[in-house]
Fold these 4 entries.
Entry 1:
Amino acid sequence: MADWKEKLTDLFEKQSEEKQNQKIKPDTATKKLQQKGDEFLCSVVDPALRDLAAELYKYERKACTFGGSKLSREMEVRFQNRVEFRYVMNVYTGAIKITVHTSYQARYQSGREEQGEAMIMKDGKQADIADITRDDIIDNFMKQYIVRETPCSC
């Protein structure tokens, strides 16, 4: 089997060609869902996170918001140059539905860390993106932020 290197080259070149041939552009429905998710982040999530950041600033917290990817937003809350809380909101687009998912990472005064995930709920069900408001975003953030032991007072 002296030609094993050639066989590997042939194998990977063939796989590379197949991947190039399989590249599919997102269909119109998927693009519309992605656009709807982007509009939601810009018109609902961003203003909510800005309002939270402004309010946290009053309590000596520096809250920075940024986009982790095209369909996500992240907020990092710092106190005395230490990250005490990180909140992430992701919008996932499927074939026919958009899902909003949140996660957080908290650092306690004791040094312990905790992570969690949540969905925004309405009437006991996962909320539809069209029904989620700025206040729902703030409420979801607050539920995660207040659950912590106590804010860091390092």
Entry 2:
Amino acid sequence: MSQAGSKDRDAPDLDATEKQRVERANQIFLRLRKELHDRERQPAERDIREAVQGAQWLREVVERHSNGLEQAYEDALSESGLPEDDQAHLWKETEEAGGFSSFVRDHLRRLEEAAPTEGEHPADPTGGMTHRDLMCGVVAGLLAGGTMMGNSFYFGFAVGASRKASCW
């Protein structure tokens, strides 16, 4: 699996703040994916709140850069080194959602909306979000972050997590 993307690719031109937010969101989503995958238990409220913040950052960046994101995703997916069936799996689901940008925005928005609001301390820190919904939001975040940072290494995590959680 290729870790670095091609520098020729049409990756979005992110400013320093956007890059920092995308990198931080990637870290949050990788940690949460590991926690959800390894422990198969409810994540801590702090983890959910961080994931919601990461989802918000990524969604905002995706909305600002949606024009070039489709081509960047196509390029990243083809350069990812993933087996053809894994590439087809990701490609099919993003296309059915109306394209990569729509796919990412929809899943990240669901993650944002399902989490408890500030000051709310429910017994369930996910605000009623299912394990599957949470995992699918994490997958969308990893795909977006990997695409925007030119790091297709995240695609492998996304494929495995999406299949395990039956995201699509």
Entry 3:
Amino acid sequence: MKKTPPKNKEIAQVGRFGLVGISNTLVDFILLNVLAMTILPKDLEVASFTMLGFNVVITGVIVAGIISGTAAMINSYIFNMRFTFRKKEVNAKHTLYFFLITIFGLYFIRPIILKIFTDTWIWPADVAYYITSTLKLPFSREFDERNLALMVAVLVVLAYNYLMYKKFVFTDEKK
């Protein structure tokens, strides 16, 4: 039996990771949009507090993003373990690493990016809305803003997760 060269194995693994990422993204985008258009809109102020001298406002879209991201995290664990990295078992330490790494990306990196692209740095959403309006697509400015912010957050966290999973979670080290 011919052994697959390491470079081809890595390319195949990145491809599988990408497919799982598409699945996670679908779960994430669909759930975020359903929540944001129904019970957790952007203008809903869920919490407000001061931290390090800054007033922090947690809006509905941030909470919707956390909920949708959590669903995607569970999807990610199952499919990355079985399909991407093809592990039959993952020990408790590696499972803990997976969730700590994913939680950091999901609950720290991602909300910061969502906040930046929905409240602070909004010109990219203006550009997205200009494009979708010019193309006569039936999207609202808020829809474009929310989904652009989520897309950027997903891409940043995707790169972070792959590198961290490969190094700390789905390693070839023995239990």
Entry 4:
Amino acid sequence: MENVFEEIRRALVRAFKGLFSAYDVFCEEIQRTDGADETAAAENWIYIDMQPVVNQTVNRWHTDRQIFIDIAIHTASEKNKDYYAIMPAVDGLIRPYFCFGNRAITVADLNFKVVDRALHAAFTLAFRDSCPEPEPPPFMQELDTNIK
């Protein structure tokens, strides 16, 4: 079974690469850094940050999870009107539900803000994660005994 965090990351990357094919999409491994090339700052890119917030035990087989996701979207123009134009498309990717693996999780709130010349779309995925119950041990077989 694939790690639930990896499932979410892969689904987010696939969704954003599908909608914004001209953008570079990053998670942990950023391909470029500031300094060496001034044109790198002017490119279109998307950075996806995931932070597990809650892992609460319900019972032996169930865990309630909350994962905060912040998606930073940068356009080469760095203009608010361009960010306002792409907000509905991002909203449609995330709400009313986000799908990953074999799940569809309702996303009630999606918050947008422009900070440091990038649009941030932030939301929390809250769901109950289950692991399969282990098989019970086999029943004891009949024992033939002789009592004298």
